[in-house]
Backbone:
């Protein structure tokens, strides 16, 4: 691997920065940099803007509107957007459903859904997990029974991120209970406005509403909305879960958190001593920074390997997920500690200006609390460790 940045990639980074300086409003960027959950309007508006530049679905194949960028350029693009405070695009649609749709969808499904997703006209929600099927997803119980040219779907899904934003949902259902659990699962696309779909909020520990539970009561779904073969949905879901972990080190989020930590530690809160001058605290910051550097190089090496087709089939994404998510929690805890008494206030969304404390405190504890979930979502870290043990150590 060449450790020198490619001058062409550096020029690309400048191009992305210039685009962000021109297009990203200061107030939107400030909200996102504080770690508040984005609104649907911001996510779709930003997607539409990226679409006009041809950048809304960088990782999709060029024939479906992707950019053809190298993995390194995708990394640069994501890093610059995140650090500038750009809203995310709908992750469920772009990173999860998109690859399944262009790989296994029918021509009609591709025509109906890929381009409108890319244009920022459709918001998607993922209906996989159930109250008793998370890590052991193949044990899911939601049923879909054939009735002419429809399925009738019944069951309960949970943890639907941004489900209340969703126009469409993609869902794993059981279509055959008689064979091995993995063999009887199908993959359906469901209109969120269908009669029988009820989406109820789950308010998370940061007092925010991004999660939901979803009830499906006799929901009629056209058979034409099934992706691929009946009972073969598990293999499509596996592809989706691999994509979920491909960029999971969250290097940009860790970088932002580290720079916020340094900023807060350099404040003399209430006229007291600066934590950054405390050798013990500053050595903990240094330790986090060293881990972040190592994570960044590990990610860049994984991207270079991807480029050359090396390491195929090895669960590098699982390693990145474990290291990146644990680092987020470590730096988040240091931020809350550095805030001292101001870290006791969650600073719920939009209220931060009326609360006491330095401006830098806004959103930090709320974000720290929400990110307790980062070692759970996208496949828990215990499950990732099982995958690493099998894939790298052959256990
Ligand atoms: C913030 C957030 C957003 C989410 N968004 C979505 C979404 O949009 N759509 C969706 O479908 N799902 C979503 N999920 C669900 C997520 O995928 C599951 O929470 C996750 O897969 C874990 O499942 P579970 O919560 O049922 O825990 P369980 O599977 O019950 O696990 C409980 C504990 O046991 C451990 N464990 C389980 N099995 C093993 C094993 N074999 N070996 C070792 N340890 C094990 C787990 O690591 C965990 O610590 C989200 C979750 C969160 C927290």
Residues:
């Amino acid at each position: 691997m060449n450790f020198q940045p490619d001058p062409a990639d550096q020029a690309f980074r400048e191009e992305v920065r210039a685009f962000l300086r021109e297009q990203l409003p200061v107030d939107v960027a400030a909200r996102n940099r504080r770690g508040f959950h984005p609104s649907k309007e911001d996510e779709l508006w930003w997607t539409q803007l990226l679409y006009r530049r041809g950048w809304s679905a960088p990782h999709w194949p060029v024939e479906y509107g992707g950019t053809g960028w190298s993995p390194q350029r995708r990394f640069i693009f994501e890093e610059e957007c995140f650090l500038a405070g750009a809203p995310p695009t709908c992750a469920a649609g772009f990173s999860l459903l998109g690859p399944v749709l262009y790989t296994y969808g029918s021509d009609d499904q591709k025509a109906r859904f890929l381009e409108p997703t890319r244009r920022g006209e459709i918001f998607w929600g993922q209906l996989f997990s159930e109250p008793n099927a998370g890590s052991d997803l193949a044990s899911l119980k939601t049923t879909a029974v054939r009735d002419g040219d429809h399925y009738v779907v019944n069951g309960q899904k949970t943890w639907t991120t941004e489900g209340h934003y969703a126009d469409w949902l993609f869902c794993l259902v059981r279509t055959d209970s008689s064979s091995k659990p993995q063999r009887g699962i199908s993959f359906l696309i469901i209109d969120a406005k269908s009669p029988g779909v009820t989406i109820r909020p789950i308010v998370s520990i940061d007092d925010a509403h991004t999660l939901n539970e979803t009830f499906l009561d006799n929901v009629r779904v056209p058979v034409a909305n099934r992706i691929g073969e009946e009972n073969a949905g598990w293999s499509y879901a596996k592809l989706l879960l691999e994509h979920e972990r491909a960029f999971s080190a969250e290097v940009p989020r860790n970088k932002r958190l580290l720079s916020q930590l340094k900023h807060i530690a350099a404040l003399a809160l209430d006229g007291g001593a600066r934590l950054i001058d405390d050798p013990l605290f500053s050595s903990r910051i240094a330790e986090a920074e060293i881990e972040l550097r190592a994570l960044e190089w590990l990610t860049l090496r994984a991207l270079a390997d991807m480029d050359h087709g090396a390491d195929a089939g090895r669960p590098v994404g699982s390693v990145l997920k474990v290291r990146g998510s644990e680092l987020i929690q470590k730096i988040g805890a240091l931020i809350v500690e550095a805030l001292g008494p101001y870290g006791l206030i969650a600073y719920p969304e939009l209220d931060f200006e009326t609360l006491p404390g330095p401006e830098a405190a806004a959103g930090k504890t709320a974000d720290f609390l929400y990110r307790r979930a980062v070692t759970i979502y996208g496949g828990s870290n215990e499950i990732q460790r099982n995958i690493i043990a099998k894939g790298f150590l052959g256990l």
User: Anything to note?
Assistant: The pocket of flavin-adenine dinucleotide is lined by residues 126-129, 134-135, 159-161, 211, 373, 376-377, 379-380, 382-383, 386 (CB under 6 Å). The chain has three domains: 7-89, 124-231, 248-391. Residues 180 and 304 are 38 Å apart (CA to CA).
